Amino acid sequence: MTKSILTNKIFLYLTEFFAGMSVMAVELGASRLLAPYFSSSQIVWTIIIGTIMIAMALGNIYGGRMADKDPNPDKLYKRIVIAAIWIGLIPVVGKYIVVAIAALLVFAINSNLLVVASFLSCIVLFVFPLFLLGTVTPSLAKYTTDSLSDNGKIIGMLGGFNTIGSIIGTFIPTFVTIPTLGTSITFLIFAGILLIIAIIYFINRRRVKPIVVGVVVFVLCSIFGSTTSFAFWDNDLTYEGESVYNYLQVKEDSKSVNLSTNVLIGVQSVYRKDEALSGMYYDYAMAAPYMAGIKELEASGQDMNLLILGMGSGTYATQLSRYFDNINITGVEIDEKITDLAHEYFELPEDTNVTTYDGRAYLDADDNKYDVIMVDAYQDITIPFQMSSTEFFESVRSHLNPGGVMVVNMNMYFDDDLETEPTINTYLTDTIDDVFGNVVSIDIPNSMNRVLFVSESSDYMNRFAGNMAQEKNRSLYNLMERVSKNVKPYEGSGHILTDDKAPVELLGMQQIDRIINKEITYYKNIYNQFGIKGLIDELL
């Protein structure tokens, strides 16, 4: 009976197919497991792909040697059971391991925290099961090859089934299981698939123990690992979920609603329930319509056209609508789920024009011109390089009316003026200055936001003063007066980003290292003086 299933090449090809599918599914699941903590930048993806390929290569070598030395298929399918169990355990313990590694490294290293933490997390969580799956191909090649006369055909069939499985394993998690069921369930689904393949084999072998062990552990993993919560320490979240692009978290209290796309670092949007000026960056960014002449347009009965690239939860659009009657707002947001959350939790009006699209691609397809264009697509390390280059800002410039203004929110500003080396914000601002030539900036109090106001027109600040003077809302006038007194002209230093060369991930990583090191200096000093007990006492 054992011989029958091994001589049935369809079953062996299916083993190869589902092994390839599971490898890709785990790789994509790894990116989503790590993204809420370390971002989904090219750096993190590189680490994931690199460590997984190392694991697979080692598995190929080991599997080939073991197939020659001890060609017992029981051992291969036991390895598949172990891989399935390990993958099933990732939803149960993975997030705790990731947070523990990050917490320990914060006190152990001073630079490259994201790189080291994500690399160690990959090694601990993913290398071993994918090493085991790497043994599948050489082992199956041993069992399926009958003679040298057809070994090329057999190896080609195995490779084909593996590749087709990998393709399907790429699309299903991305477009089906992760956005609809979540990362945890995705791991469990593909762990279950591997386990089913092994169960079929061991039923044929009449071996009960591997089946019982695998099923019992998998059931326990399904019970305890099906939670979708990444912020496991936070019990009062209003919403937590995933989209095709992001981890999403909404937190609400009596005064405000916050949106975050990262568990550990930063808040992307804040909505004030009292509908008052909040002092956040989007309040200061309302200076842009004055710079573009909104009061002049109002006096002549005309509307201002404004485009927001990176609409997010719509806080800027909502604030503009509260204070200006003659403004038409078009929003572009790549993540449709964020737009849904904006309507549900952030009171974005249903009739607000929001297009689900990439910001730069939208500009390339749009023939309209605008008085103000807001660029608000930068967040932590995941700054889109295609929206940070000279070519992008030239496209923005071409979509502005004469005298139009671009306003940019940069949310990783942190003592940049004190740095001897150019930061990500230096590169972005230099690039903008190179394209437009007229840049002023203001640092938002009590935040890490810096807002830039940019125009080809050299007199936009004079227009700002004239239009601001016509504002009758005293609170808004006072805020604009603060903007007028605190904006600083910017002088470029020649650090230019282009489509060909835009190392935004590396620059962003360096910036996050600076921010983290500054934030934890206090706790590091306590740890150095009083040890772990003193640190625990301080935290409690």
> Per the principal axes of the C-alpha atoms, what is the gross shape?
elongated
> Radius of gyration, Cα only, in angstroms?
27 Å
- Which strand order does the major sheet show? 7-6-5-8-9-11-10-12
End-to-end Cα distance: 62 Å
> How is the biggest beta sheet arranged?
8 strands, mixed
Structural category is alpha/beta
Q: What's the rounded overall pLDDT mean?
A: 86
Task: Name a few traits of the molecule.
alpha/beta; eight-stranded mixed beta sheet; 540 residues; 60% helix; single chain; 12% strand; four-stranded antiparallel beta sheet; elongated
Task: Write structural notes for this entry.
With 540 residues, the protein is of the alpha/beta class. 60% of the residues lie in helices and 12% in strands. It has 20 helices and twelve strands. The strands form two sheets. It has an eight-stranded mixed beta sheet with strand order 7-6-5-8-9-11-10-12, with helices on both faces. The protein has a four-stranded antiparallel beta sheet with strand order 1-2-3-4. The radius of gyration is 27 Å and the shape is elongated.
